[in-house]
Amino acid sequence: MRFTKLRWPGLLALCVLVARPAAAAEIVLIGDSWGVLGGPSIIGAIQGTGHAVAMDNLSIGGSTAANWNAGVHDDIGALLAANTDEQAVHVILGGNDLFAAATSPDPFGVLNQAVNDVLTTVAGATTVPILYSGYDYGPTADAASNAFLDIYMAQVAFAVSASPIASQVTMLNSNGLMQVVFGGLAAPDPNQPGPCSAYADPIHLNVAGYDVYADNLYAEFYAAVLPEPSFGALCIAGIVTALRSRRRVA
Predict the structure, then answer these.
(1) Would you say residue 10 lies in a domain?
(2) What CATH number is given to the structural domain containing 29?
(3) If DSSP codes are grouped into helix, strand and coil, which group holds residue 57?
(4) CB-based burial, 77-93: b 16+ in 10 Å, e otherwise
(5) Residue 8 lies in a domain
(6) How many domains does the chain have?
(7) Residue 67, SS3?
(8) Do 136 and 194 touch, CB atoms closer than 8 A?
(9) Concatenated DSSP letters for 151-210?
């Protein structure tokens, strides 16, 4: 029997034919520059596993949790009310608040209040799962800076766990993730900076770094809260993953 090679366009068409229609689903991302730059990697990681979802990325570079709470950018409740098909809300905020909090007599109190206010507002506007993900040790960070970031994440996690929204919010601490994946460390080490190979500048990851960040978010959160993908979607996902891998190599 003779077999004919099925090229990429034909394979894609076949996958579309066998895909079952799925209910519209969406992820709403509210963040700062990490949300702006990491958003494509996050939705790529999710779609690459076969989930037929879209992302409404509302992130604004340079934004702070305090500004979102004050309505400087937009009203979070109104934004979520306009997204009636969301499956999850993802918040990446607080990094820019760190700079303002550093000069405050109570830096952790300022940070906790700002981030918890955002999460409480989100929880009051939607019943879907909420993810709060942090940042990572920068390539120029010293032990004191890393310790500050560690304490901040621990205090926010504790504050959320003791609040009425605890069952709705998942906290993911990524501190040291780049050290393990790119730096070859067995475990995160707050006494060392993050690896330069994962960063585009002293604050932001590069594409490869955000891809790793996104894969971890999917494994630890999105895989459990999103609907199971159909066979056709899984087929298409194989193509998406291959293209994403090509981008990462390039």
Answers:
(1) no
(2) 3.40.50.1110
(3) strand
(4) eebbeebeebbbbbbbb
(5) no
(6) 1
(7) helix
(8) yes
(9) HHHHHHHHHHHTSTTGGGEEEE--TTHHHHHTT--SS--TTSPPPGGGBSSSSSB-HHHH
The Cα 6–Cα 17 span in angstroms is 15
Which structural domain range is residue 97 located in? 23-249
pLDDT along the chain (250 residues), means of 10: 43 43 72 98 96 93 94 89 89 89 85 91 94 96 93 89 93 97 97 98 98 98 87 52 54
Which sign, positive or negative, has the C-alpha torsion 172, 175, 179, 185?
Answer: negative
Q: Mind listing the pLDDT tens digit for each residue in 107-155?
A: 888 888 899 999 999 999 999 999 999 999 999 999 999 999 999 899 8
The tokens for 146 are: 């890393």
Which neighbouring-strand residues pair with 76?
none
Q: Quick check: pTM over 0.70?
A: yes
Residue 86 maps to a domain:
yes
- Report yes or no: 131 and 88 within 8 Å, Cβ to Cβ: yes
- Strands 26-31 and 130-133 come out as unpaired
User: CB-based contacts of 184: which residues, under 8 Å, 6+ apart?
Assistant: none
- Residue 66 placed within a domain: yes
3-class DSSP state for residue 108? helix
Which two three-digit tokens encode residue 11? Answer: 């394979």
Rounded-to-integer distance, Cα 74 and Cα 91, Å: 15
Q: How many residues does the chain have?
A: 250
